[in-house]
Design brief:
single chain; alpha+beta; GIY-YIG endonuclease; 2 domains; 5 helices; 5 strands
Length: about 140
C-alpha cells in the first residue's frame, strides 16, 4: 500500500532526478514485469470477440447463370427483395430454413460445400446436391 511517507519520497525523487533517468532505472528494474503485462494486454486485445447468436434464416438463392448464393438474414423477404434489385434477372429462392444461430449455420454450410465455392458466398453446387439440401435442411 502506498503511504503518505512513500508519496513524499517519490515526490522528492522526481524533483531531483531527470525523468529520462528515472524512467530508464524503473524500466531496467521491472522490464520483465512490463513485458509480461504488455503481453497479457496484447493477448486480451487479440482475443476473438464473441458473436451473439441471432435467430433467422439461411437461404440458397440461384441467379440466372446457375450460381448459388448461400447467405443468412434475419428477414428473408426483405433480403430477397434487396438481392432481386441488384440483378438484371431476379434470382430464385431454392431453399431456406430457420435457425437459432444464423452465423454458425451459414459458416457450417460454407465449409460443407467449399469444394463448390466460386467466390465468397457463391457456389456451383450440382443439381443432385441441391436436391439433398432441400430434404436435409428443414
Amino acid at each position: 500500500m502506498l503511504t503518505d511517507e512513500h508519496k513524499k519520497i517519490i515526490d522528492n525523487l522526481l524533483k531531483k532526478v531527470p525523468n529520462e533517468e528515472l524512467a530508464e532505472y524503473i524500466y531496467s528494474k521491472y522490464k520483465e514485469e512490463f513485458r509480461i503485462r504488455n503481453s497479457c494486454f496484447q493477448d486480451i486485445q487479440k482475443s476473438p470477440k464473441k458473436i451473439k447468436k441471432q435467430e433467422g434464416f439461411v437461404y440458397f438463392l440461384k441467379e440466372h447463370s446457375g450460381k448459388i448464393k448461400i447467405g443468412k438474414t434475419k428477414n428473408l423477404n426483405k433480403r430477397i427483395f434487396h438481392l432481386g434489385i441488384k440483378f438484371p434477372i431476379e434470382p430464385v429462392l431454392i431453399h431456406s430454413f430457420k435457425t437459432t444461430d444464423i452465423t454458425r449455420s451459414e459458416k457450417e454450410l460454407h465449409e460443407k460445400y467449399k469444394k463448390y465455392r466460386l467466390n465468397g458466398e457463391w457456389f456451383n453446387i450440382p443439381k443432385k446436391e441441391l436436391e439433398k439440401i432441400k430434404t436435409s435442411y428443414q
